Task: structure prediction
Amino acid sequence: MTPLSIPSPDPVFQSFAIGPLTIHLYALFILAGIIVAMLMVNQRLTKRGGESGVVIDIVLFAVPLGIVGARFYHVFTHMGDYFYPGANILNIFAIWDGGNALYGSLIGGAIGAWIGCRFAGIRLWSFADALAPAMLAAQAIGRLGNYVNHELFGLPTTLPWGLEIESTNPAFPAGLAEGTLFHPLFLYEIIWNVAGIVLLLALERKFALRWGKLFALYLIWYGLGRSWLEAIRIDPTTDTFLGIPANVWASFVAIALGIVLFVVQSRRHPGLEPSVYTPGRGPREVRPKKGAAPATDTAAEGSDEAAEADTDASPHGERWTEEELSSSKP
Result:
């Protein structure tokens, strides 16, 4: 161990056996992040009138598709790691060995969330706003798995918090002396994500951001941080375009999408959504019976939430009509 440095964990901690099963700590950190995110989203949705546990109806679709998207995005941006003479094609599915891309999880998870929200009757943008800080929490926890796996490190550094990486690591740059320290990108991202949680919650409290606007800020915040981290990351097998790593391009896309989403939704929806439920839907215990007239979006959110719903007006001051709300995207 070098003085004033961050040692990498002993590889023995990367996995352990329970009978015939091998449990990988990396996978446990991902699972812990998912559970924490679920609890956060559930608390945030129920506070705004959603039924407790409705998040489960959504994550049953979002999480599996998010994991699939994360893995395959990683594989297709690291083709050299999986497609070469003599390669074991089954390694494509070895998620426990590390290699899951956040941007892939966003793509797959977004598809799953859209399906789950339609099934549960939740507005997609309401779910996305509830998810924004929870995603950062899940990502911060998941990065601990990168630390255990001795991955996600940056250029060499002499800073006192440099990360120790063994010279036998496949990503260790050739020609560098053993004992060289590297920027601990996993730690930088944890700090960035935690700071993002504080920032998003503060902005949400001050400006009552709804209709996907908080999620838009998440995309901008994460894209900004990730673009810098990827620029100094040592990852010799990642694919590039015009000499720029794929994840840097993906970060630029995330920032652009966040800006467009925030501007568009700010113009279309200057106020709050009247309910986290889509028109005609609501908590199971208050859903209209078959043949009954559709219930209006009046899920109980407390008197203060009801007052806030009154601010959901057009730029000219009129209330949004049910037809306008129905025609608007969730």
About this structure: Confidence is low (pLDDT under 50) at residues 295-330. The first helix runs from residue 25 to 47.
